[in-house]
Amino acid sequence: MVSVLERSSLPNGRPRRITAQATAALCVGGMVVARALVNRTVADELRDACMAVALTLGGWDARSKLKNRNSQRSLAARAAAR
Questions:
Q1: How many other CB atoms are found less than 10 A from the CB of residue 16?
Q2: Residue 80's CB: how many other CB atoms inside 10 A?
Q3: SS (H, E, C) 33-69
Q4: Counting beta carbons within 10 angstroms of the beta carbon of residue 19, is it exposed (0 to 12), middle (13 to 18) or buried (19 or more)?
Q5: pTM for the whole thing?
Q6: How far apart, in whole angstroms, are the C-alpha atoms of residue 42 and residue 44?
């Protein structure tokens, strides 16, 4: 996972490996904690926050990278619910 993230991340002034390791830890840790939460709303907010930070760390645009229409609809539904 780290090597894939490392290859696809954009330069940000830090070594790509360090950014990739931090991104992988954020993704895995965020998912583990979100799964442990009872409150679905809080879990969704945590996953969204982790994704936003991970996308920023890697230099990726969230909207253009989503290929699955269901994922795009899910993001739109969450945004509309807020």
A1: 17
A2: 7
A3: HHHHCCCHHHHHHHHHHHHHHHHHHHCCCHHHHCCCH
A4: buried
A5: 0.66
A6: 5
